[in-house]
Design a protein that fits this description.
- The complex is a heterodimer of chains A (121) and B (110).
- By secondary structure, chain A is mainly beta.
- Chain A is built from no helices and eleven strands.
- Chain A has strands at 3-7, 10-12, 18-25, 34-39, 45-51, 60-62, 70-75, 80-85, 94-101, 108-111, 115-119.
- Chain A is globular.
- Chain B is mostly beta strands and 110 residues long.
- Chain B is 0% helix and 54% strand.
- Chain B has strands spanning 4-6, 9-12, 17-24, 36-40, 47-51, 55-56, 64-69, 72-78, 86-95, 98-101, 105-109.
- Chain B is globular, with a radius of gyration of 13 Å.
- Classes of the chains: A mainly beta (121), B mainly beta (110).
């Protein structure tokens, strides 16, 4: 089965850092770009950022509100993408989803189940 | 800052047809924004319905269709069913690897 599984969420104090993982299976991970999306409790989806496949440079782009604090990376040998969040704020609380960018389409076709991050003293 | 607009809520009768829209705070949505649509029920991950304006994602029922209506992207549900009651989000591709989601529409089927 083609799937993405996020892990690494939890309760974190403000100001700390956290690294979330997105592990892929069932497809050639290195051929695809990966996007991170978050959802604050009771709120809508927010696009956070995107990392290209190595074939397209493996570079990342970020939404303006998170640029500088969030870092997306990937390890194709392990079929894993990462989202590191530094200087966590209470407003970073929410569910973090990773998604696969569809081939030849500017959209997302496969979604993980999400991992909850709670930032609280 | 670009804001993608959606109706906060909508209702439809079972078997009815409803059209949800996705606009821009400034300017018009065209196919160049590659609008896509996602459905989410509470506690679940989103699932992809439509991409590139009007292409149906694998597994999406054919009662869902996408289009451009005037200056907005649109998602039409023809023959709404009870389990269509959920939140619907559109996303627009802004170029340079940047996407923006709309605020979502809560659809009630009653």
């Amino acid at each position: 089965d083609v799937q993405l599984v996020e892990s690494g969420g939890g309760l974190v104090q403000p100001g700390r850092s956290l690294k979330i993982s997105c592990t892929a299976s069932g497809f050639t991970f290195g051929d695809y770009a990966v996007t991170w999306v978050r959802q604050a409790p009771g709120k809508g989806l927010e696009w956070i950022g995107f990392i290209r496949s190595k074939a397209y440079g493996g570079t990342a782009e970020y939404a303006a509100p998170v640029k500088g604090r969030f870092t997306i990376s990937r390890d194709d040998s392990k079929s894993v993408a990462y989202l590191q969040v530094d200087s966590l704020k209470t407003e970073d609380t929410g569910v973090y989803f990773c998604t696969r960018r569809a081939v030849a389409a500017w959209a997302f076709d496969i979604w993980g189940q999400g991992t909850m991050v709670t930032v609280s003293p | 800052q670009t804001v993608v607009t959606q109706e906060p809520s909508f209702s439809v009768s079972p078997g009815g047809t409803v059209t949800l829209t996705c606009g821009l705070s400034s300017g018009s949505v065209s196919t160049n924004y590659y609008p896509s649509w996602y459905q989410q029920t509470p506690g679940q991950a989103p699932r992809t319905l439509i991409y590139s304006t009007n292409s149906r994602s694998s597994g999406a029922p054919d009662r869902f269709s996408g289009s451009i209506l005037g200056n907005k992207a649109a998602l039409t549900i023809t023959g709404a069913q009870a389990d269509d009651e959920s939140d619907f989000y559109c996303a627009l591709y802004m170029g340079s690897g940047i996407w923006v989601f709309g605020g979502g529409t809560k659809l009630t089927v009653l």
